[in-house]
Amino acid sequence: MSSRRRINLELVALAAAAFAWLVSAQGFWESLLRAIFPAQPMVLMPRDTLAAFVAQHLALVGVSSAVTIVIGIPLGIFVTRRRGAEFRSLVIAATDLGQTFPPIAVLALAMPVLGFGFWPTVMALSIYGLFPVVGSAIAGIEAVPRAVLDAAEGMGMSPSQRLLRVELPLAARVIVSGVRTSVAINIGTATVGAAIGTGGLGVPIIGGLAVQNMAYVLEGAIPAAMLAVLADAVLGQIEAAVTVADSAATT
Amino acid sequence: MGAFVALAGVTVLPFVELRPNRLVPGNAYSVAAAGPWAYLLWLLVAVGFLSAVAPTARARAASSTASGYGLVIALAWGLGAASTALLVDQTAVARVSLGSGVWVLLAGTAILGFSGGEERRRKLLRWAGPLVLVAGAVIAAFVWGGLDRISLAREFSVRASSFWSLLGGHLAMSGAGLGFGLLLGVPLGLWATRNRHVRAVTLGVTGVIQTVPSLALLGLLIAPLAALGVAVPLLRDLGVRGIGAAPGLIALTLYALLPIVRNTYVGLAEVEPAVIDAGRGMGMSSWQLLWRVEFPLALPLIVEGVRTAAVLLIGITTLTVFAGARNLGILIFEGLGQFAPDLILLGALPVIALAVIADVALSALGRAFTPEGVRA
User: Cβ contacts (< 8 Å) between A196 and chain B: which residues?
Assistant: First the structure.
C-alpha cells in the first residue's frame, strides 16, 4: 500500500548489527571498563561472556513476548466478537487491575507458585505482558468507526473478512504500541530475573552491586539500556509502518 | 465463569501445605483440612453457580455478590481452622503455607464479586458497608480463628517491628520520587507548551529514560555517583554516594518525569483556544489565565499522569534496595535469596496493595478535580 510509511530498514539493521558487534567485542569492554576503573582488578564478570548474558536476556524476552503475542491478540479479538462479548468487561477489568500490579512484585510472587529458573520466569513475564497487549487489542479494534464497519458489511464482506481486511489493519498501530509497551516491560523485568537465577544482563548488575564492583554493574547496565532503546526503536518503526494513513481509512 | 475458577480452587488444587520448617517444601492438603469450613466453602461456590442460572438480573447479582464476599470470610476462617488442625503435634518451627488453590479461589472470588457489582462499581459508599463487614470478619479470624498461625502471619510477627519501618521507608522513597517528579515535571510540561524545541527535547529524553530498564538505570547512576562522592568529599558528606538513597531517588524522579511531563503538556495544549479567548476577553492577564483557566482545566490529566507515575514508582522502589535503600524490596529479595516463599509474599503483597490503593485514590482525585462543566 502506497499510503504506508516504509520501515527505515537500513537504519534499524545498522543499529542492530552495531549492537551485536559491540556486545561480542569482549576485548573492547575489557579495555573500556579498565580505563574507567583502573583500580579494579576484575572488570568483566567471569561467570559468562557479555554475549552470553545478552543471549540469555534475549531468550527470556523473546520467548515470553512471543507467548504474549500469540495468546494476547487472539484473546483481545475474541472478546470483541459477539461470542466473547460476555467476557469483555471481565477481561478489561482484569487487564486494568493487572497493569497496576508492579511487574517486579508479580515476578516475585510467581516464584513460590511456579518455582525458580528460566521457564517459571518466562511464564511470569508472559502473563504480565498480556495486560498491555490484550488491552490495546481491545482498544484498537473498538476504535474502528462504526461507519467503516457498516461500509464493509455493505460491500458484502463476511465477518472474518471484515476482521482481517478492515478491523485488524486499522487497529494494527494501537496493537503494535501495546506490544511495544509489553516488550519494554519484559526487557526491564527480565533484568530483575537475575535475582532468581535466570541469567541475563541483570546478573552482572546485581552481582556487581553485591560485591561493590561498579565495572560489573556497567557491564550489565550499558548493554541492557542499549538493548531496551534498540528494541523500542525497532517496534517504533514497525508501529509507523503499520499505521494506515487517514486517507486510506476513509477511502 | 468466576464460579468455575473458584470450583477449581476448592477441588483439584492444594489448599494448604504443611512444611517441617519455613524453607523446605512439605505435604499438600486439600480443603478438607479446613474441617466444617470446607462445607461452607463448597456451599458458597454453589451459590456462585446460581448467579449463572438465576432467573432475574437482581438474583444473579445478589448471588454472585453474596458468594464473593462470603468466600473471602469463609476462606479466612477455613485457613485458620486448617492451620490450627495441622499444627497439632508439630514442632514449633513447622509452617502451614497457602496452597495454589487459595490463590485460584481468590481469583474466582474476585471475578464473582466483580460481576455482581459491575454497574455500581464507582459508588464507593455502597461498597463501604460490605467491605467493613468482610474486613471485620477477616480480622476476627486472626484473633479467634487461628489465622495468625499460617506461615505468612508468622513471618510477619517475627519481623513486625522492621516491617512497619520498611513500609514507611517504601512510602517515603516513592513519595519523595513523586514529589521531585512533580516539582520538575509540571514546570517542564508548561515550558514545553510554550517552546517547540523544549517540547521535542523533554518528551524525547524522558521517553528514552522510561525505556531503559530500571535496574540498568540504577546501575548507570550508581557508578558516576560513587565516583563523584570519592572526588568531592563535600558532596559525599551530603549523601551523594554510589550506594544509599541518592541514586535510588534520582532514578525514581527520572521515571516519574515522563508521565507527569507528558500529561501536563497534553492537558495544557488541549485547552480550547475559545476558552482562552473568553478569558482574555474578560481582561485576565496571562498569569491569571494560566492559574485560573488553563491549570484547572488541565488538572485532571496532570493527576492522571501522577497516578501512572505513582503506580510505577511503588514497584520500582523495591529495586532501590540494591543500592542500599531500606524498603519492602528487602523482604522480597531476601525472600528470593533464602528461597523463603512466605517472606516474598510478606514483601510483595503490601507492594501490590500500595500500588492498587494509589491507583484507586488518585483516580478518585482526578475525578474530583474535573470541573463540573466538562465531566463526561
Answer: 336
By C-alpha distance, the chain B residue nearest A87 is B1
Cell numbers at B343, concatenated: 517472606
Q: Hey, which residues 286-315 in chain B have their CB within 8 Å of chain A? A: 311-312, 314-315
| C-alpha distances in Å from residue B23, one per residue of B85, B115, B162, B341 | 21, 38, 21, 8
Phi, psi torsion values for B54, nearest 5 degrees? -60, 145
**Interface size between A and B, measured as CB pairs under 8 A:** 138
The residues spanned by each domain of chain A are 9-250
pLDDT band at A247 (very low <50, low <70, confident <90, very high): very low
- Cβ contact (<8 Å) for A188 and B215? yes
What sign results for the dihedral spanned by CA atoms B276, B279, B283, B289?
negative
* Tens digit of each residue's pLDDT (9 = 90 or more) over B84-96: 877 777 777 777 7
Tell me chain B's radius of gyration from C-alpha atoms.
25
Choose among A99, A175, A104, A113: nearest CA to A139: A175
Question: Is any Cβ of chain A less than 8 angstroms from the Cβ of B103?
Answer: yes
Task: Return the exposure string of B56-92: e unless at least 16 CB atoms fall within 10 Å of the residue's CB, then b.
Answer: eeeebbbbbbbbbbbbbbbbbbbbbbbbbbbbeeeee
Which class for A246: exposed (0-12), middle (13-18), buried (19 or more C-beta within 10 A)? exposed
The Cα–Cα gap between A132 and A186 comes to 11
Q: What is the rounded distance in angstroms from the CA atom of residue A56 to the CA atom of residue B150?
A: 38
The Cα B118–Cα B266 span in angstroms is 31
Distances in Å between the alpha carbon of A216 and those of B49, B223, B259? Answer: 56, 10, 31
Contacts of B337 in chain A (CB under 8 A): 195
* pTM beyond cutoff 0.80: yes
CA–CA distance, B311 with B358 (Å, rounded to integer): 7
Grid coordinates of A72: 494476547
Domains of chain B: which residue ranges?
2-154, 160-374
**Which residue is listed with cell 490463590?**
B103
Q: Locate cell 563523584: which residue?
A: B228
Closest CA to B240 of B257, B213, B256, B221: B221
**Cβ pair B341:A111 closer than 8 A:** yes
Tell me the three cell numbers of residue B263: 500529561
Q: How confident is the model at residue B119 (pLDDT cuts 50, 70, 90)?
A: very low
Residue range A9-250 in CATH 3.40.50.720: no
- How far apart CA B74 and CA B157 sit, in angstroms, is 23
B98: three-class secondary structure by DSSP: strand
Of the candidates B79, B50, B220, the residue with the CA atom closest to the CA atom of residue B154? B79
Candidates 3.30.1390.10, 1.20.1640.10, 1.20.1560.10, 1.10.3720.10; correct CATH number of B160-374?
1.10.3720.10
Task: Please list every residue in chain B whose beta carbon sits closer than 8 Å to the beta carbon of residue A217.
Answer: 219, 222-223
Residues of A in contact with B214 (CB under 8 A): 188, 191
Q: CB B316 to CB A102 under 8 A?
A: yes
Please report the ipTM that was assigned to this predicted complex. 0.86
Residues in chain A, total: 251
